[in-house]
Design goal:
CATH architecture of the largest domain: 3-Layer(aba) Sandwich
Strand order of the largest sheet: 3-2-1-4-5
Strand content: 15-25%
Pathway: Carbohydrate degradation; glycolysis; D-glyceraldehyde 3-phosphate and glycerone phosphate from D-glucose: step 3/4
Number of domains: 2
EC number: 2.7.1.90
Protein name: Pyrophosphate--fructose 6-phosphate 1-phosphotransferase
Enzyme class: transferase
Shape: elongated
Helix content: 25-40%
Structural class: alpha/beta
Pfam family, one: PFK
CATH class of the largest domain: Alpha Beta
CATH topology of the largest domain: Rossmann fold
Length: 419
């Protein structure tokens, strides 16, 4: 039997640990040369496959592959590009088959979130739709933590740790200045429809170290009057208040508070800028001095403060993807299954991609406090283990020593293709 090569690509917004998944996949593939030949990475995601812009990962020494484990962002480049249906764009699927045939590719690994799962599902069906045998495995990744079935998503634990730490430190700062200066600090975090990242900000407050934090969730319709009343009460009681707001917060009219009318490549509203909207409400409604910040790329790039749990889970899902492919599976995704909370234990499971693609996991109602501005003990019990442990990268001259791969191009065999 001819040994098939593999294609791997990263998709969507990158994370502090997506390269750890790549390391798990590449190291495991190299350990099975009798099953998987070369692993070609797509430069800039699925676009790399369509344009035959492939990277020869075999040209990288093992030390460089291992260094991916502690390097943030996407080592091979990512993209926001969603394959349309076969009926709407048959030429893209025919192009993929030509690329796969030209480079003897029989395994397809796609590392991304919900939209990426949909792309992977479509590729996994090529055998049935166009007669080309391919095993497609999706590797979960999303800071939003909104993929279904899996207990959590690689990438989330680290962004949750970053946000929790940032809220704790900012709260100490505001508390020290509140007597004569800033009384309210607002931090905007990612989260279009699901408030998992915002919820992580609530971990900054605990029973032995209470911090007056207000959380604004996408799952809870924003009520300006109630928000200002809560803020006013906290400031009067504690002298200050900190607010973590998800970019996806909506008003009673169902519109995003931060919707600027722009759209991204997937057709989603281009969000960002809700923090100043909330800040203006604090100024106009309460007359309080405020500061606001937007964590933006910092929250998902902060490998220096990554969660060890997250790093280990990201690596494990990449490793499992190869093992599932070798075992003959197609159209599946490795999942993380929680065994117990205390001590926190987990294992890798598996789910069919049809149960993942285009499905979002929101915050459960019993994770949000009754007033809609905080997290419950049940939510805290879920979140706390995911941010535990430190996995510091090596440092050089005071800065993290991150790796940049050579990303040697594979020689093209086909004519140019316009996307």
């Amino acid at each position: 039997m001819t040994i098939k090569n593999a294609f791997y690509a990263q998709s969507g917004g990158v994370t502090a640990v997506i390269n750890a998944s790549a390391a798990g996949l590449l190291e495991t593939a190299r350990a099975h040369p009798d099953k998987i030949g070369n692993v070609y990475a797509g430069r800039n995601g699925i676009i790399g496959a369509l344009t035959e812009d492939l990277i020869d990962t075999g040209s990288e020494p093992l030390e460089a592959i291992r260094a991916l484990r502690h390097t943030p962002s996407g080592a091979f480049g990512s993209c926001r590009y969603k394959l349309k249906s076969l009926e709407d764009n048959r030429r893209e699927y025919e192009r993929l088959i030509k690329i796969f045939k030209a480079h003897n590719i029989g395994y397809f690994f796609y590392n991304g979130g919900g939209d990426s799962a949909d792309t992977c599902l479509k590729v996994s069906q090529l055998a049935d739709t166009l007669g080309y045998p391919i095993q497609a495995i999706h590797i979960p990744k999303t800071v939003d933590n909104d993929l279904p079935v899996t207990d959590c998503c690689p990438g989330f634990g680290s962004v949750a740790k970053y946000v929790a730490v940032s809220m704790l430190e900012a709260s100490f700062d505001v508390a020290s200045m509140a007597k004569t200066s800033t009384k309210v600090f607002i931090l905007e975090v990612m989260g279009r429809h699901a408030g998992w990242i915002a919820a992580a900000g609530g971990l900054a407050s605990s029973k032995d170290r209470h911090v007056p934090i207000i959380i604004l969730f996408p799952e809870v319709t924003f009520d300006e009057e109630k928000f200002l009343a809560k803020t006013d009460r906290y400031v009067k009681e504690y002298g200050y208040c900190t607010v973590v707001v998800s970019e996806g917060v909506k008003g009673a009219d169902g519109k995003f508070l931060s919707d600027q009318g722009l759209r991204d490549a997937f057709g989603h509203a281009q969000l960002g800028g809700v923090a100043p909207v909330i800040a203006n409400m604090v100024r106009n409604g309460l007359g309080l001095k405020y500061h606001w910040g937007v964590s933006d790329y910092l929250q998902r790039a902060a490998r220096h403060i990554a969660s060890r749990t997250d790093v280990e889970q990201a690596y494990a899902t990449g490793k499992a993807a190869v093992e599932y492919a070798i075992a003959g599976y197609n159209s599946v995704m490795p999942t993380i299954e929680r065994i117990s909370n205390s001590p926190y234990t987990w294992k890798i499971g598996m789910v069919e991609l049809s149960k993942v693609a285009n499905v979002e996991k929101m915050m459960p109602a019993d994770f949000i406090s009754e007033d809609g501005f905080g997290i419950t003990d049940k939510c805290r019990e879920y979140l706390s283990p995911l941010i535990e442990g430190e996995d510091y990268p090596p440092y050089k001259n005071g800065l993290p020593d991150y790796i940049r791969l050579k990303n040697t191009a594979v020689a093209k065999k086909l004519a140019e293709f316009k996307i």
